Amino acid sequence: MRYARMPIEIEAPEEKGYNTIRYNLAESSMRDISLKDLDIDFKELVLFYGEHRGVVKLRQAIIEDSKVLSPDDVLVTAGAATALFIVATTILSSEDHLIVIRPNYGTNLETPRAINCQISIIDLGFETGFEIDIDAARNAIRPETRLISITNPHNPSGKLYSQDTIQALISLAEKNNCHLLVDETYRDLNFQTPLLPYAAELSDRVISVSSVSKSFGAPGIRIGWIISRDRELMNDFLAAKEQISLCNSVVDEEIAWYLLQNKPRFIQPNHVHIRTNFAYIKGWFAAQPYLEWVEPQAGVVCFPRLKASYTIDTEKLYTILYERFATIVGPGHWFERDRTYMRIGFGYPSLDELKAGLHSLQVCLNDLAVKK
Fold it and tell me: How much is the pLDDT for 2?
């Protein structure tokens, strides 16, 4: 395999150094929690090899709200990133074909590329509100197609795909004997409408992936999961995990179980915070002369772009924003789009930080944007 570092990782806030950033609008998660926020006594926890699939009580908590899924349909992994790596390297090879709906999370593109998988990319259009073109997906199907890859809620636009769209993709996967991967890491941050079931509930051809990183602000414990009702495939995923890491940290699993057992305590305040910040950024865009957005429906990110009537030196924009104002956003090339696109996270910052960061961005746009 030929690995390549992704721009989104090279330029990530943790790589720049959090101490160099004052207004962090690049994060795609809630604010990180601390151990002091948890009421856990680890004194009796035995530091043994954990259950290879993940401790049963955690797998049960992951599917607690489902009437369809069982703990045997869950494999706990070291974060959603490892889950996606396992899915790609188990299902795909250089002789197989993948359809990726882009923008997408980088791992869903780079890992298949590393194994020389054949890839068809279907780009989502800003003009169509990042809606998935089902006909384009259908036309991209080949005899060797093994996987269709999407994110829902969508990263980075915040688009929430309808059940009709998801069902159309499921039907496509079922008809063509392939799988549909649904990266659902923002599922618990559906702050405007009721929580939807895991897509994996709908068909044994669906693979759902999620984690506690985004919704709970706990990326440091590295706990994610794969859900699938395809038992043979799940056994293959387990074999992959056993060769990569064998099991997870029992400490991490204990924390993840605590978070899920106390979900309302963490998620409900997060939703209140998101709605507050969302109301502000929505008003900011309504008065924005330079940028336009597709209003997000879920999650904590949006993906605006520079209006066509303006041009800008993006190198200067992002450099000045960071070096002069200690503010960062996620430039479009993180998602293989033009740098006049940017991902703005509105869940991680406090309201005051969001206001200050957007003000910094506005100052830079005022100085650098040029009318065509």
Answer: 87
Pair of tokens at residue 358: 């957007």
What's the CATH code, domain 7-28+264-371? 3.90.1150.10
Closest Cα to residue 244, out of 119, 75, 60?
Answer: 75
Indicate the pLDDT class of residue 1, thresholds 50, 70 and 90.
confident
CB neighbours of 96 closer than 8 A, spacing ≥ 6? 117, 118, 144, 145, 146, 147
Per-domain residue ranges of the chain: 7-28+264-371, 47-261
What is the C-alpha separation between 225 and 232, in angstroms, rounded?
17
Q: Is the CATH number 3.40.640.10 carried by domain 47-261?
A: yes
How far does CA 313 lie from the centroid of its chain?
28
Q: What is the pTM of this model?
A: 0.97
Residue type at position 352: D
Sequential DSSP letters for 14-41: HHH-GGG-SEE----SPPPP-GGG----
Other CB atoms within a 10 A radius of the CB of residue 231 amount to 11
Average pLDDT, the chain: 97
Question: CB burial class (10 A; 0-12, 13-18, 19+) of residue 347?
Answer: buried
